[in-house]
TrEMBL record:
Source organism of this protein record: Evansella vedderi
Pfam families cross-referenced by the UniProt entry: TerC (PF03741)
Protein name as it appears in the record: Tellurium resistance membrane protein TerC
InterPro entries reported for this sequence: Integral_membrane_TerC
Keyword Transmembrane helix recorded: yes
Keyword match Transmembrane helix: yes
Length: 220
């Protein structure tokens, strides 16, 4: 249950930006329960498959470490994100709308897929967590706009957690762990220290940018 909740919460917050884009494309279809159900199911299946593919790649040496580095970059980018522009380009037919969102999600969900791949290796939990978060985001998209507008620091907190998870997995990666083990005797005690340190750095970095510049979401 804890693992499912973790996947759900991280997916929910990391998709706040994406859902604004998707709803702007859906337009009038966003109020249709059936359309929301269909698009949620398709996106969830695609993402679950992508996460499984990432897990397979983890068997290759240094891949997990490389993904950890990418996640750190994503964490810093998320913590300092300031402005999102959402296009209002009208797409009339439903099939075209669905195809556009599915194609767009392959790119926009990369960060979500990488993060979730570090949180769970159970397909059912991954599918359930991602599916529930997407469904709720689509159904309550009007509230999502308000949440993003008034609580931008939520991204900073999630970014700090991503940084913690990324650093922990980078150090625990076998080649890195064996390399560090030869130089540090109390390696197991140092792993949380490195991870917490990275989380604090990202938290300070994100809060600095939040106070310096307000995040502004412009819906055109």
């Amino acid at each position: 249950m804890a693992e499912l909740l973790k996947v759900f919460l991280i997916s929910f917050v990391s998709d706040l930006d994406n859902i604004i884009v998707y709803v702007s494309i859906l337009k009038r279809y966003a109020s249709s329960f059936l359309v929301v159900l269909v698009i949620t199911a398709i996106l969830t299946i695609n993402r679950t498959f992508s996460v499984s593919l990432i897990h397979y790649l983890y068997t290759i040496p240094w891949v997990e470490f490389s993904i950890g580095v990418i996640l750190l970059i994503i964490a810093f980018k998320m913590a300092s994100k300031q402005t999102e522009f959402v296009s209002s380009k009208r797409i009339s037919s439903l099939p075209k709308v669905l195809f556009t969102i599915i194609a767009l999600d392959l790119v926009l969900s990369i960060d979500n897929v990488l993060i979730v791949s570090e949180l769970s290796r159970t397909p059912a939990i991954i599918y359930g967590g991602i599916g529930l978060s997407l469904f709720l985001l689509f159904m309550f998209s009007s509230y999502v706009f308000q949440f993003v507008k008034f609580f931008p620091w939520a991204f900073v907190v999630v970014a700090a957690f991503i940084g913690y998870t990324a650093m922990e997995n980078m150090i625990k990666n076998n080649p890195v762990y064996n390399l560090l083990l030869g130089n540090f005797k109390n390696m197991e005690e140092l792993i949380p220290l490195f991870s917490k340190g990275m989380a604090i750095i990202i938290l300070i970095y994100g809060l600095y940018h939040s106070f310096k510049n307000d995040r502004i979401y412009i819906i055109k």
